[in-house]
Amino acid sequence: MIEFKDVNLVYPNGTQGLKNINVKINDGEFVVIVGLSGAGKSTFIRSINRLVTPTSGSLLVDNEDILKFRGKDLRKLRTKTGMIFQNYNLVKRSNVLKNVLAGRLGHTGTLRSIFNLYKKEDVSLAYESLKRVHIDEKIYNRADELSGGQQQRVSIARVLTQQPKYILADEPVASLDPPTSHQVMNYLRKINKEDKITTLVNLHFIDMAMEYADRIIGMRAGEVVFDGPVSEVTEKTFEEIYGRAIREDDLRGGAEQA
Amino acid sequence: MTNPKNSIADKKTIPSIYPTKTKLQVTVIFFVILALYLFSMKKTTEDMVNGLDGALGNMFRVLAKFFPPNFEILKAIWNPMLETIQMAIIATTIAAIITIPLAILSARNVTTFKPLYYITRIFLNLLRTIPDVVLAVVFVGLFGIGIFPGILALIIFSLGILAKLISETIESVDMNPLEAMRASGANTLQMIWYALVPQIAPQFTSLVLYVFEINIRASVILGLVGAGGIGLTLNQQINFYNYPNAMTIIIVIFITVIIIEYISTKLREALL
């Protein structure tokens, strides 16, 4: 369970990234956070694994206030929160299997990882993860030889290999075309249901949010302006979140092709 | 300053490619550089009142003394030549190893702790300001004539170049994979090993080979001040006015350097 209690974040340049956030994310939920760029979606999601650090309030992950974490505690927190990025963030010159095994780094000792002495279970776990996103035939390809959609699937496999309790996905489909976007969202959704991994996804496409989310959190200017199950969400809700009328480019489309 | 947007709209003319300010700056820089050239030209002409008069005649006289080269000493110079190559290999290897921590500590994107970054930077800048020959003279004074002071001088000399070039390579890497590793709970060493090393490995190898080339040439020069190797032998022959022998040594150095540079260039091409 993740719980934000009066969380504020002010960046050194004075920008208020998060303003009085009070949100509770229950285990197993698939939450989509929507909002325009600059609304604080990224800051929200990155607070949970402390890639950014809120300046006040408390943020509980499994009933521990993670804002006080340093060093070892922080690494432990990060091993249970897997992250997926807009730009996939793979090591382009390394092969797919090695990229996926990097998901085990948090569970592996420094010496073991430097000499590639992964446990047999870890290697087979990495391979199984690649199979789950159907990219196991590319294990020895270099990451930069793959297409964007394939790279994002490798990064999903990396997160699966990490065996996290939470998955944080920061605009995972923003660099992909509509059919590939749906494919990636389908994998995330499937993993959420099968492995019971709580998943938080940042999106700015309204139709995708509606299609995949259990629950939608709307953000504007660092504040949570909507929080509710997807069944309560209408076009009007989005207009309130975005503070303007809905436009063509707020939709990803292409759902029927997926 | 006039508002460029308005002036374009008023005159309805085609805008120039560069803004007036840039043009002005470039013009000023041009004239400053021109003035520098004129100044240094004046200085050198004062010193060279005789021009090249004597030099051309002298050149033939001096060159004639070097020919024909005495190839009988080939056997004797084989050893010092190998010594020079060994010096370069040992020095480059040791420098390449010591460079790694220094380059990481002097890369702004990895070493976020500012004081450490500045201290390493200053230390490396100091290393680079010392010319290799000065290093060799100092070490020969400390340890006596031989290859050991030469190796030490080369290590410090190549450390300055390598650490600087490699830290700049590190600063230009893609930081995204490092962020991904951090987000998955990896520690700093694992982040460096998994996300940074694969990105800089080809450039690292290429730069080390390049510095090896430089070290071969530098070790010849260092030999002239007593730091072992073929340079030392060359210096002895020149001091004895034994020019045909010196010529053979020069030819051997020339061929060796060309061969090593050729191999190194091919290797580097294959890497990048």
From TrEMBL, chain A:
Q: Which CDD domains match?
A: ABC_PhnC_transporter (cd03256)
Give the protein's recorded name. Phosphonate ABC transporter ATP-binding protein
- PANTHER family noted in UniProt: AMINO ACID IMPORT ATP-BINDING PROTEIN (PTHR43166), PHOSPHONATES IMPORT ATP-BINDING PROTEIN PHNC (PTHR43166:SF6)
Residues forming the ABC transporter domain are 2-246
Swiss-Prot/TrEMBL keywords = ATP-binding, Cell membrane, Membrane, Nucleotide-binding, Phosphonate transport, Translocase, Transport
Q: What GO CC terms are in its UniProt record?
A: membrane
| Gene field | phnC
MF term (GO), any? ATP hydrolysis activity
Q: Which organism is it from?
A: Perspicuibacillus lycopersici
Spell out the InterPro entries in the cross-references.
Answer: AAA+_ATPase, ABC_transporter-like_ATP-bd, ABC_transporter-like_CS, ABC_transpr_PhnC, MetN_ABC_transporter-like, P-loop_NTPase
TrEMBL record, chain B:
Q: Which InterPro entries match?
A: MetI-like, MetI-like_sf, PhnE/PtxC
| GO CC annotation, single | plasma membrane
Tell me its family: Belongs to the binding-protein-dependent transport system permease family.
- Gene name in the database record: phnE
Q: Where in the cell is it found?
A: Cell membrane
Membrane topology note: Multi-pass membrane protein
The yes or no answer to whether the keyword Transmembrane is present is yes
According to the UniProt entry, its GO molecular function terms are: ABC-type phosphonate transporter activity
Residue spans crossing the bilayer? 21-39, 85-105, 133-166, 191-212, 219-238, 244-263
Coiled-coil positions: none
Predominant location: membrane
UniProt entry keywords in alphabetical sequence: Cell membrane, Membrane, Transmembrane, Transmembrane helix, Transport
Show the taxonomic lineage: Bacteria, Bacillati, Bacillota, Bacilli, Bacillales
Q: What is this protein called?
A: Phosphonate ABC transporter, permease protein PhnE
What the entry lists under SUPFAM superfamilies is as follows: MetI-like (SSF161098)
The residues covered by the ABC transmembrane type-1 domain are 81-264
Q: Which Pfam families match?
A: BPD_transp_1
